[in-house]
Automatic annotation (TrEMBL), chain A:
Pfam families: ABC_tran. InterPro entries: AAA+_ATPase, ABC_transp_ATP-bind, ABC_transporter-like_ATP-bd, ABC_transporter-like_CS, P-loop_NTPase. Keywords: ATP-binding, Nucleotide-binding, Transport. The lineage of its organism: Bacteria, Bacillati, Bacillota, Bacilli, Bacillales. Residues 3-197 form the ABC transporter domain. Belongs to the ABC transporter superfamily. This is ATP-binding cassette domain-containing protein. Transmembrane segments: none annotated. GO terms for molecular function: ATP binding. The keyword Endoplasmic reticulum does not apply.
TrEMBL record, chain B:
It is found in: Cell membrane. The chain crosses the membrane at residues 20-40, 76-105, 117-138, 144-161, 192-213, 246-265. This is ABC transporter permease. It comes from Aquibacillus rhizosphaerae. Keywords: Cell membrane, Membrane, Transmembrane, Transmembrane helix, Transport. Belongs to the binding-protein-dependent transport system permease family. CDD domains: TM_PBP2 (cd06261). Gene3D superfamilies: MetI-like. Its main location: membrane. PANTHER family: ABC TRANSPORTER (PTHR43386:SF23), OLIGOPEPTIDE TRANSPORT SYSTEM PERMEASE PROTEIN APPC (PTHR43386). It is a multi-pass membrane protein.
């Protein structure tokens, strides 16, 4: 599996280019970091990769073919703010099972307690919610996971736990992972290579 | 600071409690009116020429008319008919606006411009005119009036729902759902519809008084319900001729009752809208 972004350029509306000529190749089992100062378009780039946004120029392909957009997308994105990424009117069991049905071992690995499943999103903390978002994005058909500041607002212990689980699962499933972060320690620790934006 | 019971009682009720009170009061009134309207003995409104033109008394609370019919019973029946028309009309109207609002916001640009054009078209013509034309085209009567109300009152609510859906559509969890391979219809049904239900309820509540008043207005003009049905509009228009001879009770009580019910619905709708709106809810 090879996720390839070629010559990507993007601008908001009729404004200036946010970035141009960005190339990136991620293979299965790779953990690639993306760093850079605020506002250079890291998040926008990751949204383009996951097909949330269309680039003004350039293409995103998987194994040389364009990605089918109507079914489950093989590139899944985990957002920085979990409270926005879950429906506040759904109990968490429903949110978790939206894409697939994870088993109990899987939930254990991410530290999701069974009793949380019957709660509403506003009854859980950000860290607890983020575990649900990660679990939801790690469906069997996910080939690449993009973690856009996934653990930035979490404490060190939770961070470590989540990353440990994610990297484990990625290795097991033969997935590629993209890490967007300002945290140099995290990047040094988990990534096999780094793209400076 | 601990408040004693007495102080608590003296405190003015907050908006939530007041709304609840009005809601309870209104549901009781509506139930009573509808039930009596259905159960009431036809004899009460039969003509009885011995008690013609009597002013309000204990026997006839709202007086009697020029044919000796009891105005209290006629008012109740008229109100229950009006509430029926208003509810069916408002619910029909809300259904149309929800469907059109969802279509406009989820089906793409062409659908959106068609719906927006339709909304502008209907908003540019006064309600009453299009209502009269539609009611007339469907042959008047109960069916014509209900259809007329349902087909003319949807645009403003449709506009609100369209903008609401557009906002929900751009939220992260809806986008995620799309990437999970969920269909447009599924997302609309599971994610968006629950989000617009509060708006819809408030919409129905605010449409209802409009619908009743318009029904009364059209009937008053003689284009709505037929004269043998004791609708409020009919009662009012018939009593016009007798007002000048001093029979004020013929128009006064039915008018006040109509106003009362309309005002209550209006109040509840307004309060609910403010309570649901997070910018106002904490006040």
């Amino acid at each position: 599996m090879l996720l390839e972004a070629k010559n990507i350029g993007f601008k908001y509306g009729a404004g200036d280019w946010l970035f141009r000529h960005v190339d990136l190749q991620v293979e299965a089992l790779e953990v690639v970091g993306i760093t850079g100062p605020s506002g250079v378009g890291k998040t926008t780039f990751s949204r383009i990769l996951a097909d949330y946004e269309l680039p003004n120029e350039g293409t995103v392909t998987m194994d040389g073919k364009p990605i089918m957009t109507s079914s489950y997308h093989p590139v899944q994105l985990v957002f920085q703010h979990p409270e926005k990424a879950v429906n506040p009117r759904w109990k968490l069991r429903r949110t978790l099972n939206e894409g697939w049905q994870p088993n109990d071992d899987f939930l254990d690995k991410l530290g999701i307690k069974q009793e949380w499943l019957n709660r509403w999103p506003n009854e859980l903390s950000g860290g607890e919610l983020q575990r649900f978002c990660v679990a939801r994005a790690l469906g069997p058909k996910t080939k690449f996971l993009i973690a856009d500041e996934m653990t930035t607002m979490l404490d060190a212990v939770t961070q470590a736990q989540i990353w440990h689980a994610v990297l484990d699962i990625a290795k097991e499933r033969n997935m590629g992972v993209l890490v967007i972060s300002h945290d140099q320690h995290l990047i040094n620790r988990v990534c096999t290579r780094v793209l400076e934006f | 600071m601990q408040l004693s019971n007495k102080q608590l009682l003296k405190q003015p009720l907050n908006k939530r409690q007041r709304t609840l009170l009005v809601c309870i009061g209104l549901s009781i009134v509506v139930c009573v009116v509808v039930l009596t309207g259905i159960l009431l003995d036809e004899n009460r409104i039969a003509t009885n020429l011995e008690v013609r033109n009597s002013p309000p008394s204990l026997d006839h609370l709202f007086g009697t008319d020029w044919l000796g019919r009891d105005m209290f019973s006629r008012t109740l029946m008229g109100l229950s008919l009006s509430i029926g028309v208003g509810l069916t009309g408002a619910i029909g109207s809300a259904t149309i606006s929800v469907i059109l609002g969802l279509v406009a916001a989820t089906m793409g640009k062409v659908a959106d411009s068609i719906v927006t054009w339709l909304i502008d078209l209907f908003l540019s013509v006064p309600h009453l005119v299009s209502l009269i034309l539609i009611a007339f085209a469907f042959g008047g009567g109960f069916k014509g009036i209900v259809l007329g109300i349902a087909l003319t009152h949807w645009p403003s609510l449709a506009r609100v729902i369209r903008s609401e859906v557009m906002q929900v559509r751009s939220l992260d969890f809806v986008q995620v759902s799309k990437k999970m391979g969920k269909s447009r219809w599924w997302i609309t049904k599971e994610h968006m519809l629950p989000h617009i239900i509060p708006q819809m309820l408030v919409g129905v509540l605010l449409l209802f008084p409009h619908a009743i008043l318009h029904e009364a207005a059209v009937t008053f003009l003689g284009l709505g319900l037929s004269p043998q049905e004791p609708a409020i509009g009919i009662i009012l228009s018939e009593s016009m001729r007798y007002l000048s001879v001093g029979m004020w009770w013929l128009a006064f009580f039915p008018g006040i009752c109509l106003l009362f019910i309309v005002r209550m619905f209006d109040k509840i709708g307004d309060n609910l809208r403010m309570l649901i709106d997070p910018h106002h809810a904490h006040r």
